[in-house]
Batch of 2 targets.
Target 1
Amino acid sequence: MGNVLVWAVWVVAAIACLGSGIAVISFSNPFFSALALIGNLASLAVLYLLLAAEFVAAAQVLVYAGAVMVMFLFVIAYVGGRAEHAFESGPSWQALAAAVAAGVILVDVVIAIGLTTGGRLEDEADIDVVFGSPADVGEVFLTNHLLAFEITSIVLLVAAVGGVILGSERTRKRA
Amino acid sequence: MNGPDVSWYLTLSSFLFAVGALGVLIRRNPLIVLLSLEIMLNSANLALIGFARHLGDTGGQIFALAVMAVAASEVVVGLGLVVALNRSRVPLDVDRLSTLRG
């Protein structure tokens, strides 16, 4: 019975995920696109919960749907989202070529996955109840993956400094 | 838990990646290009977490968290560029941004 429930939640989340993803790239107004991306991130968080990644799901909602998307919405409000027709701008052969390229990427990825993993993905590992909990993630982060943790902090620091420099009025005049 | 196994998640992830790639290629507004990049990064995250569950290894989740931090940094720099472009009266159209002169 729980099996059916898991499948039902998966199907709903997957449809919401793909639908909101297509909505992001087809709305003409960037504001609506950003709102659709929030739905996309929320449905991905549901999928992460199904995959026993509780901490990553919480971080997804906090970091992405919270901080990053608020920044996006502020910038869209500041810039003034100029409406643009999604699939009508520019020559139509460009849109056609883009669709072909995206389809090629999809087929390429599916073939690569199918050829390398075909038939060997059935037996799932057994996990215990602490898998993906904050304690588990934190312990692995600070022991096996300490270097990644430190590099992440440096990347965030550099990005913060770069954002301040890009946004400051003074450096733009000097340049 | 006998829910969908990792191949379902991988299929969804590749479809999501293709949607993001289509958005990057087809849209002119740099803001929507950044949003499509987020979709592509998140599809990679979904594959990473799916394999973390499949293999019972928390390392995939660590990698997904690192990808999130990199995505946040990318958004900071990208939005900083958009604001700087807007301030110097450059039209927000990736086809017309043909020079990198400041």
Target 2
Amino acid sequence: MRTEELFQAMAQSVIDGDVDTATDLAKQAIGSGVDPLDAINDGFVRGINYVGEEFSRENMFLPELVLAGEAMKAAIGVLEPQMAKEGTVRQVHGKVVLAAAPGDIHDIGKTLVGTMLSASGFQVFDLGVDVPIARVVEKAREVGADIVGVSALLTTTMVGQQEVIEALQATGLRSKVKVMVGGAPVTPEWAEQIGADGFGQDAVQAVTIARRLVGLEV
Amino acid sequence: MQPKLELLDAELVRRILDEAHQLLSEHGVKVQTSEARDLLAGAGAKVDDEVVRIPEAVVAAALETVPRRFSLHDRSGEPIVSYGGDAVHFDPGSSCVHVLDPETLEHKPSTAADLARIVKITEMLPQLDAQSTAVVCNEIPKEIGDLYRLYVVLLYSAKPIVTGAFSVKTLQAMIDMLAVFAGGREALAARPQAVFDVCPSPPLVWSEFGAENLIELARASVPAEMVSMPLAGAAAPVTLLGSVVQHAAESLGGIAIHQLAQPGAPIVWGGAPAIFDMRKGTTPMGAIETAMIDASYAQVGKSLDLPTHAYLGASDAKIVDAQAGLESGVSAVVGALAGINMISGAGMLDFLACQSPEKLVVDAEAIAMAKRLVDGVQVRTETLATQMFADIGFRGDFLKQKITKELFATEQHIPSKVIDRDSMRGWQQSGSLDTWSRSRERARQLLEEYQPPQHDPAKVTELRTMVERLAQGAGMDRLPEPA
């Protein structure tokens, strides 16, 4: 397969949410000596961007977005070790620590945000659900996070977003990280009130916000 | 003949139960408290860490001892709500965190005063058979939040109550509060006045609190209402049937734990499922598929001759608009036709998050329609028609007949002013009001006409003293009165 055809097939495998094909094509790329970084940026990422766009237009839906993310993860799982071997560094736009607020066990949205950010070139550390404030702050410090993202799906757990910001302040980390928040009850007004740096309505918007927060063109 | 809606044939019901047993015995359920696991192990279940594989025989034994029927009584001990069989009742949806401000249309954090208002209106609406702890009182410390809500409901109403506890400690306090009016815990057990909602966590998990709740309620003989909530496509299989199987597995597992704690204690096959909206990631309570899951799991519960419950009659709209009307109305009718004993949801907006007294008043009309529907077409006269034609000839003089005067109010439900049946001119002369405006007027009127229940003052004092002590224990120096 010519490289351009290969890249198109890669994008399509993500659009189709086809983990097996994505994995095969990633291996094929390595076998044919294609630059793994090109495979990611010109192949697979085009697929996830398409799905994200179509999802925003309500032409594609959550199951398709989630499966596209799985296919993306599978491809990166094959290509990243290869890049490490070759000494290529995948340019990381920034490090993002993600967590659902304490007491909140909802993770579908947050996981999608992680997928989209990862696909867009961020390094994501997803701490999962019901994460104690101290743990969020500790992880941010440990990895040198550029962004901390906190999600909350309940009005009762939203306050956790404020508490993360206060804890970052108290530990002297606030000036070093940008904080973005999201989740169904979260509004731009709430984000402003608690001093967050960004608010995203969904996983696709989260990428735009994150890029803006690290100073990239949106 | 009570009209019925059945979505499943007998073969499907059998397959659903079959697979539920398969899930319970092979896949297992997670049970996150050792006391429940020990009960199940003692009966023959296999325990592997927190995962319990429950053999069909254990569930079958539990199903032998579950009461098929029980009643909920009002504060004077009269049986009002029949759980079990096909009697249909409604209560306002519970545990909302917001209330719709009728002036600004904002969703505001709910307070004790809001709860009191909702309780009073519910008490004045004959279509609502029971009260619920409809909203969280945000200004009250979390540790007594659940019992304080119950306190407000007890102060202002006499109807039976659908409620729930947030902790084992407060559960016991709430039972004691109810016992004040019943005349002791034994009397309360003999004539229950409240059911407590208990939720498994989808998929197939009975959390520490959920399982403890089941055990404590069983031992106190206070009815437990399981509220299993499969989220089809996200926290449960995407197919309606797959979600109904998950519901059955969770509920059968719950019954096993409950009956092992106290055989013969009352329990309800209930739920609050929804489909998962694949565009917004929300949980639409007004979706027809949601109602179909409810009707289907209710049918499964009825095949086991169990009391049933569901969350229907709610809407995902944010204001009391046409969507609110149609979603609540359609789903209330589905629930009634499914013969569900307690249908929770009236008054709710925004996916069960927001309560609205004005919406409650509108929903009461839909409930009246639903109840009239399941009352069915009845034979009220010796001949269906021929006797009534005796002196009519060919004149439309039925209005003059004595039988018309005798039967019209039985045959026809008379709606409140919230439903406009006026002529165009009459409607204009009354101000050309829409449903929302009419509902605001009626809510105001009901509050004005509200009469507090005739409680024994000694019991009210006893209750107040008890709750004061509990409030002090939570660090409050005085007990807030709901106003």
